[in-house]
Amino acid sequence: MSKLHGDVPYGTLDLMILKTLQVSGPLHGFGLAREIERVSEDLIRLNQGSIYPALVRLQQRGLITASWGASESNRRAKFYALAPAGRQQLGAETESWRRTALIVERFLALEG
Amino acid sequence: MLGPWVRRLRMAFRHSRLDAELDEEIRTHLAMATEEYVRQGMTLEDARRAALRSFGSEELVRERHREARGFPWLGGLVRDVRLAARILLKERGFTLTALVTLTMGIGANAAIVSVVDAVLLRPLVAAGVAFALLPLLRTRSARRFFRPFARRSKRVARTGTIEAPRGSGGRGGGPGGRAADRVRIDDPELRGAPLGGALDSELPLIDVRSMQDVIAGS
Predict the structure, then answer these.
(1) What does the pLDDT look like over B81-110, one tens digit per residue?
(2) What is the reported pTM?
(3) φ, ψ of residue A5 in degrees (nearest 5)
(4) Domain-embedded: residue A42
């Protein structure tokens, strides 16, 4: 089980990346990592490097695209953006997570 | 879904470029993180250390990145084959035993199978074809066509000699003139006779008796 300051719950990093890209638009790796940390506040301690393998996986599945561009501080950086297939996948996964959460919530609410 | 496979394949063939790109991404990431920590008031040295800490293990990231793209089992396969080759070279006795066993096993099997195929299977096919042709051989015109051959083969069976058909080059054609019209079947000279080539190859294949039975309509 994940505790406070825990690792990213298994299987949720992809979803967080897709959702963040949908809301914020194209981001480079660092921006993406900071954004995920900001949204999850103190609940998650992200090993920022771990988003890069996740990004290449998502890229291979055609869910995101990558292109080189210039950062705010005029550095050359790879920017990731949500692809149409990623938008679709995000919709499906959002639905599935809500259902899972609802089911778990119902069981936890049981009183004995 | 062709897309993911094409992308995967492309990535599999661009390992060194993708490694270099990841290195650049990591450098940029650490520089950006350091900058941010400096903005928050850290000394450059502390900021650098903090950036490295929040990034996690670079080596692990590189490894996971490589595993995630392309066909990771391909690299594993190459490693396994190399290891196997090294062990086989070291364990000569085992290698030799295995090699001899395999050679003999495969060789014996191939030999037996080809014998079975030639002796048991192919004649069955030929018999099947002949059986299918039976009705054709029993027609009146077929009988008329085969009658001279049947008569001649009866005579061959009776006398043990073969006559060259008249006017087919037997007379004066062979080296012995008239003498070559008649050839004993067991004569080694048969090969040189005008009909020799044909007889050589066909005589042993035709079962004269059953052919006669077929033509007689039994």
Answers:
(1) 889 999 999 999 999 999 999 999 999 999
(2) 0.54
(3) 60, 25
(4) yes
The answer to whether position A4 is within a domain reads no
Q: Say which CATH number the domain at A28 has.
A: 1.10.10.10
Residues 6+ apart with CB under 8 A from A34: B36
Per-residue model confidence as pLDDT tens digits over B36-77: 999 999 999 999 999 999 999 999 999 889 888 867 667 678
- Per-residue exposure over A9-27, b if at least 16 CB sit within 10 Å of its own CB, e if not: eeeebbbbbbbbbeeeebb
- Both B8 and B89 in one domain: the answer is no
Q: Which amino acid, one-letter code, is at A55?
A: L
Give the number of domains in chain B: 3
Q: Are residues B194 and B176 in the same domain?
A: yes
Task: State how far residue B83 is from chain A, nearest Cα, in angstroms.
Answer: 28
Which residues are within 8 A (CB) of A53 and not within 5 positions of it... i.e. 6 or more apart?
B61, B64, B65, B67, B68
For the question of an ipTM over 0.90, the answer is: no
The C-alpha atoms of residue A43 and residue A37 are separated, in whole angstroms, by: 9
Inter-chain touch B32–A53, beta carbons under 8 Å: no
Task: List the domain range (segments joined by +) for residue A57.
Answer: 13-108
**Cβ distance of A78 and B26 shorter than 8 Å:** no
Question: Which two three-digit tokens encode residue A31?
Answer: 């921006």
Range of the domain at B92: 72-117
**Residue B108 and residue B139 in one domain:** no
Q: Which residue among A29, A49, A60 sits closest to B69, beta carbon to beta carbon?
A: A60
